[in-house]
Write a structure and sequence with these properties.
Its EC number is 2.4.2.8. This protein is an alpha/beta fold. It contains three helices and nine strands, in the order βαβαβββαββββ. The protein starts with a strand and ends in a 5-residue tail after the last strand. Bound molecules: 1-O-pyrophosphono-5-O-phosphono-alpha-D-ribofuranose (PRP), guanine (GUN) and magnesium ion.
Length: 180
């Protein structure tokens, strides 16, 4: 285990098992769309690792697309004032879209994203989030697929960073408070 990690919450094996299950559920739920397939969308950068693994567990035609958004204002992350830095490469009108997120925390990122994507009139729009934080102040967001509930701590690994580090840890853990 990395020296900066206080506790491992989900091991590499836990994550692989859940990603496998979510991929199987999506394959089953979208069986009627086997012809046109689904579009997976992830928000850079944290969710790219989850989406890359999830895509390989969906047994349907899958397109992958990416958006980069930035919160700004007072400088705190996910301030709710969001700007698109990189838009999707493809049109999603009439398509079955699944947003792959690494973590749902305050919910401000997904609130903005879902509103933005819905305005493009996809045939359907759902969320697959690997983690949903147990926190009181969370926007109400319907997630069709949730990997794990996690405690209200600052967590890193498997895509999740602190100051751009720890994204490449194969597991998810709580960062030692003295590190940040
Ligand atoms: O529910 P919220 O409070 O909005 O937080 C969740 C968002 O925060 C993280 O992204 P971040 O802004 O750190 O960017 P990153 O993916 O590049 O690390 C994470 O990847 C989610 O997208
Ligand atoms: N790395 C990381 N990014 C986040 N974004 C929102 N919540 C978190 C968290 O707990 N850890
Ligand atoms: Mg981050």
């Amino acid at each position: 285990m990395h020296d900066d990690i206080a506790e491992i919450l989900f091991t590499e094996e836990d994550i692989a098992r859940r990603v496998d299950e979510i991929g199987a559920a999506i394959t089953k739920d979208y069986a009627d769309c086997a012809e046109e397939g689904v579009v997976l969308i992830s928000v850079l950068r944290g969710a790219a690792i989850f989406m890359a693994d999830l895509a390989r567990k969906i047994d349907l035609p899958v397109e992958m697309d990416y958006m980069a958004i930035s919160s700004y204002g007072n400088g705190a992350k996910s301030s709710g004032v969001v700007r698109i830095l990189k838009d999707l490469s493809s049109q999603i009108e009439g398509r079955h879209v699944i947003v792959a997120e690494d973590i749902l925390d305050s919910g401000l990122t997904l609130t903005y994203l879902l509103k933005n994507l819905a305005s493009r009139r996809p045939a359907s729009l759902e969320v697959a989030t690997l983690l949903r934080k147990r926190t009181r102040a969370q926007a109400k967001i319907d997630c069709a697929y949730v990997g794990f509930e996690c405690p209200d701590e600052f967590i890193v690994g498997y895509g999740l960073d602190f100051a751009e580090r720890y994204r490449n840890l194969p597991y998810i853990g709580i960062l030692k408070p003295e590190v940040y």
